[in-house]
Specification:
By secondary structure, the chain is of the alpha+beta class. It has five helices and 13 strands.
Length: 232
């Protein structure tokens, strides 16, 4: 398989900060492989291999084949843990996959072109959703969904349902999710300013009239009812 990334891993029994520090000095990090209702496997692997996975064409969606002793395990990267002070990678989680079963993954959206609404109509381009969730065989995971925004005018948008997705890939994200849109400059602010102006004008009219809700004359029926109460 062309997209398969082979990773050499070593079994490990030791845990704890001291062991992790020793691994890092050797250019390695601790990790685990789990999933598919099988036992969790503690391993260690080269930090450079993890970095190579992240920099590969499919990144986190790369299919991995771990070689541990005489055992091979197919997996994908699930989570990376970073040191909060240095941003160095300190641990990795990998999840087992069956190449004959569909997996759910997030696939990035790649923007192509320049929107006509920005180029000639002075609009603003808003990249709202940068990845969508799909379900398919691991070997069929696309690198990205390319979106051509050249024909987007002000007021136009592209939604998840507009993406070009192959038949063997199922869209899991809401089809109505907005991927990107072109809006007019200042439109939201203008609406807000107009609303505030209307409120201020209404308040000014009331002030000039010198009336408050208590000052306004009551309906006739209500006034008559009040008179009856007084007579009693």
């Amino acid at each position: 398989m062309e997209d398969l990334f082979r990773v050499k891993a070593e079994s490990r029994k030791e845990v704890g900060k001291k062991f992790a520090r020793r691994l890092r000095k050797e250019g390695k990090i601790p990790a685990i492989i789990y999933g598919e209702h099988k036992e969790t496997i503690p391993i260690s692997l080269l930090l450079n291999d993890v970095k190579a996975i992240l920099k590969s064409e499919k990144g986190e969606n790369t299919i991995l084949r771990f070689q541990r002793d005489d055992i091979e395990v197919d997996a994908m990267l699930k989570e990376i843990q970073y040191d909060y002070l240095s941003d160095n990678i300190i641990h990795a989680d990998f999840i087992r996959i069956d190449l004959d079963k569909a997996v759910s993954v997030n696939v990035p959206v790649a923007i192509k072109g320049q929107a006509i609404g920005v180029k000639t109509e002075d609009g603003i381009f808003d990249f709202v959703t940068r990845e969508v969730k799909v379900k398919c065989l691991a070997a069929k995971i696309p690198n990205a969904f390319e979106v051509d925004i050249s024909e987007l005018h002000i007021g136009n948008s592209i939604k998840a349902e507009d993406l070009v997705i192959e038949e063997n890939i199922e869209l899991i994200s809401d089809p109505q999710t907005v991927i990107c849109a072109v809006t007019a400059k200042g439109r939201p602010e203008e609406v807000e300013v107009e609303a505030e102006a209307e409120e201020e004008e209404a308040a000014a009219v009331e002030t000039e009239a010198g009336e408050t809700p208590e000052d306004k004359p009551k309906p006739k029926a209500e006034a008559e009812g009040d008179d009856k109460e007084e007579k009693k």
